[in-house]
Amino acid sequence: MAKTNKAPWFVNLGNVMTTTLLRAGLKLVGPGNYPMYLLTVRGRKSGQPRTVPIVTIERNGKRYLASPFGAVAWVRNLQAAGEATLARGRRVERVNARELSLKEAALVLQEDIKGGNPFASYYQVDAKSSFEEFERVAGKHPVFLLQSAM
């Protein structure tokens, strides 16, 4: 089980502005030119919708969601719900989220960091790290495969 964390205060501050811009329909890209969306997921305790801006990883025609800050609230909510919505402005897409195994998550993180992910410092690995180090990191930073829920 991943350790429970909180994002740094500056992330929460930036999320307020980013959420406003994404709700207005702007097509924002995060660091590394990754697309940004508003992720809305049902709260695991309250059942109320919770929304946070996120950056998706797009590789080989698939979309992934990784948490550079570990098992923060949206991660725990997504683990419990298994589904969410991705939105930008009026465009909303329902998605199913499957948490990847350590090996699968390590492969995604390794490919992403070798591709120049600017969040690499949060994962405490770099492009030269061994696969075992990526597996260790994957246990602390959950990775989800997002698939359209048609």
Automatic annotation (TrEMBL):
It comes from the Bacteria. Signal peptide: none annotated. GO terms for molecular function: oxidoreductase activity. NCBIfam families: hi_GC_TIGR00026. This is Nitroreductase. It comes from Ktedonobacter racemifer DSM 44963.
